[in-house]
Specification:
Chain lengths: 306, 444
């Protein structure tokens, strides 16, 4: 395994995270240039290996790599040899043999990126492994709060929704807590993971009183199909009433609150369309910051030096 | 080495298990039987010595839960490799699970497995008959026909007998010919999609949990059904504190229930899953420390009768990535050193170890009971060198597969010799294939 891999937010300490944030902020200037591109990773090849559908994360990594002048190749499971029964191991080793300098891996299975990292000697960046982690999401969320509020230490975040099945929750909570934010989670008991009492969070029972004290409101995507597989909720209607960021709840939030969502949004479920128009809504900024954060992560992983 | 050609020899200087304790004595084996036990036995002409200094001399071990993968899964294990692994681990008898293709649900399949194992000749293999046809969970297999083909244990292992009415009828039916139903206790409605023990580690890793309650619900049901029918039930690979406590209470009120635990549930905790290495994926899953402590206590106080390996070979292709990986791990070649480690650290007495690996499993499976090395018993023996430390190299194991979770780990204690009805199957750690000139090579 290459030690420059980024598989979990816990691979980083506060100092590392500070470095990524600083570098990401520095790359903002690059994106303002007429030709928003630097030659930092020229001649390097980044493979985006996506075994699970994801348009936005894959494009974000691809744009980030291109802004650094890396060559990019994309592998997606649909239409690939996976459908012919080739194993994950063989797929990765085949790409590795072609001379890839860094793998960006998305997979439906927790631990898949860690497994891949054990099979290659180049860095692997986890772009989401099932319900486990999505470390670049945690970093871009941190940058987003940092830009909005000028710092993050001591800010209070309420994260709402399906914590149990969310890789975003695991990485973003880790990043926020490590940098001194106070995180509370609010969700039905069926959507809280076992052992939440050992996480660096408080569990808030009532959404409205948690919102009243919040600097950051983080709404997680509610997978509608989930309630058909496993009766975690009686109905989406009841979920929205208890845990949705409705128009009315949004009206009560102050202008300087930061409203976040990892996307894609279920408008009208976890977040009302009106809430996305709130002055505090930072959802598009999260996407924008995703590019600079991934530039920073790729740059650091490949030891860029320009 | 001419040792293999003799039918009479003396095992010298071992610490020999006499049923209550050990004595440093010699053991004379003639014509497949132990004929003499005593200090410094005089050498007879033409007789050879087997060195057992620094070794425990135990009855041959019995494993009532083994997957030999035959027929149908020969890419992972076959009878020759599985038998060699068993002999290397000190075993003389195996109960083979029938979740094969085809399964052990007809006498013909059972007889063919027995015949093949007999031809290999390194260990006695006792196929467990299926409870239901095709392991479908619905229709009873022809249990008496399977009994006539040699089956004494009946199980749909790999799957539970989910339907309580089928379980009840199976318990009643085999009672008539002293069979036993062995159940894999898992409420499947609670384990759909489960990947590991449900607890703080599963919550952190985002892997779907397999709750302890899913096992305990079926343990409770099986105990109640056995009690109701006055039948005997055996609970396979129990892994939770609640299961141990229910078995303890059931035994106290006289229910005829027996239970087994695996070496891996005795020695590993669910933090190993943080590596995401599928070698640790097994069903029931590796549990958290409080459950491990409970099964250790249950084994120590006799609540849990037997250690059984649930030896489950899988090819590397089926152990690639956690969520799609097959469940199961190798066990035969590491079982005794692992259980011995619990004796060494004071968790178990030697008496409990011998009972749990010899006498109790043979009773559960209705096999001839081996509980001591004394004159007159058949010479099934495991000579275990307690002083040798070795590092597990998964590629050097006898099993065809290499999915041992103990790879790279140093274990203390290694089988030096194994004797099967007076014939060495392992000598100085090396497999001894049976040949015409071999000792005690007789049908059983």
């Amino acid at each position: 395994m290459n030690e420059r891999s980024l598989l979990s937010i816990d691979d980083l300490g506060p100092g590392d995270i500070g470095e990524v944030v600083e570098l990401a902020r520095a790359f903002e200037e690059v994106l303002q240039r007429p030709i928003p591109k630097v030659p930092a990773l020229r001649g390097r090849t980044v493979a985006n290996v996506f075994f699970e559908d994801s348009t936005r994360t894959r494009l974000s990594f691809e744009i980030a790599a291109k802004r650094l002048s890396a060559d990019t190749v994309n592998f997606t499971a649909s239409g690939s040899s996976l459908s012919k029964g080739e194993s994950l191991f063989d797929t990765i080793r085949t790409l590795h043999a072609m001379g890839v300098d860094l793998f960006v891996v998305r997979h439906v299975a927790p631990g898949a990126a860690r497994r891949v990292a054990g099979w290659v000697d180049v860095p692997v960046v986890n772009a989401g492994d099932g319900a486990h982690e999505h470390p670049t999401q945690g970093l871009l969320d941190l940058v987003t709060v940092h830009r909005r509020r000028g710092g993050v230490e001591g800010l209070r975040c309420v994260m709402v929704g399906d914590i149990a099945h969310s890789r975003v929750a695991r990485s973003t909570i880790g990043a926020f807590a490590m940098m001194g934010m106070q995180v509370s989670v609010c969700a039905p008991e069926t959507l809280l993971p076992m052992g939440i009492d050992e996480w660096p969070v408080e569990v808030a029972d009532d959404l409205d009183s948690a919102f009243a004290k919040a600097d950051v409101v983080y709404m997680l995507r509610m997978q509608k199909e989930r309630i058909f597989d496993d009766p975690v909720l009686p109905s989406l209607r009841e979920y929205v009433a208890r845990y949705g960021l409705t128009a009315e709840r949004a009206r009560r939030l102050p202008d300087d609150v930061v409203i976040m969502h990892p996307g894609p949004m279920n408008r009208g479920v976890e977040i009302a369309p009106e809430a996305t128009e709130h002055p505090g809504a930072a959802i598009e900024e999260q996407v924008r910051n995703g590019v600079t954060v991934r530039m920073a992560v790729l740059y650091l992983a490949l030891g860029g030096n320009s | 080495m001419s040792k293999t050609g003799n039918s009479t020899f003396v095992i010298r200087d071992g610490h020999v298990w006499n049923g209550q304790g050990t004595e440093q004595v010699d053991v004379r084996v003639e014509e497949g039987c132990v004929t003499q036990v005593g200090r410094s036995l005089a050498a007879h002409p033409g007789e050879e010595d087997l060195d057992a200094s620094g070794c425990l001399v135990l009855p041959g071990l019995v494993d009532i839960h083994v997957h030999l993968r035959v027929p149908g899964g020969e890419d992972a294990e076959d009878i020759a490799t599985g038998s060699a692994a068993a002999a290397a681990g000190g075993f003389c008898d195996l109960v083979a699970m029938g979740n094969t293709a085809p399964p052990y649900d007809t006498a013909a399949v059972v007889r063919s497995v027995r015949a093949e194992a007999g031809a290999v000749g390194l260990v006695r293999v006792h196929p467990a008959g299926c409870v239901t046809r095709g392991r479908n969970g619905k229709d009873l297999a022809e249990l008496h026909e399977l009994h006539r083909a040699g089956c004494r244990v009946f199980t749909d292992d790999g799957d539970p007998v989910s339907d309580a009415a089928i379980m009840r009828r199976a318990l009643e039916y085999v009672k008539g010919f002293d069979g036993v139903v062995a159940d894999h206790c898992e409420d499947r409605s609670l384990t759909a999609g489960a990947q590991m023990h449900e607890g703080r580690v599963s919550g952190r890793l985002g892997l779907q949990g397999w709750p302890a309650a899913a096992e305990e619900i079926v343990v409770a049901r099986d105990i109640l059904l056995a009690e109701h029918c006055g039948a005997r039930v055996h609970l396979q690979h129990i892994s939770t504190a609640g299961s141990v406590e229910m078995v303890r209470q059931a035994k106290a009120r006289g229910v005829y229930v027996t239970a087994e635990v695996t070496p891996h549930h005795l020695t590993l905790t669910d933090e190993v899953v943080e590596t995401f290495d599928p070698v640790y994926k097994v069903n029931p899953p590796i549990r958290s420390a409080e459950h491990v402590q409970a099964v250790r206590e249950g084994l120590a106080d006799g609540t849990i009768d037997a250690v059984a390996t649930d030896h489950a070979p899988h090819t590397a292709e089926r152990k690639e990535e956690w969520t799609t990986a097959a469940c199961g791990m190798l066990g035969l070649e590491t079982a005794l050193p692992l259980v011995w480690s619990l004796v060494a650290d004071g968790t178990l007495t030697l008496d409990r170890m011998v009972h749990a690996m010899c006498a109790s499993p043979s009773r559960i499976a209705s096999l001839p009971v081996r509980d001591s090395v004394v004159p007159g018993v058949p010479a099934d023996m495991c000579v275990f060198d307690t002083d040798t430390a070795w590092t597990v190299d998964v590629h050097k194991l006898r099993s065809k597969a290499s999915n041992s979770p103990y790879g790279g780990m140093q274990l203390h204690g290694r089988v030096r010799h194994t004797l099967l009805a007076g014939r060495p199957t392992v000598l100085d750690g090396e497999t001894v294939p049976p040949g015409d000139a071999s000792m005690g090579n007789r049908p059983w």
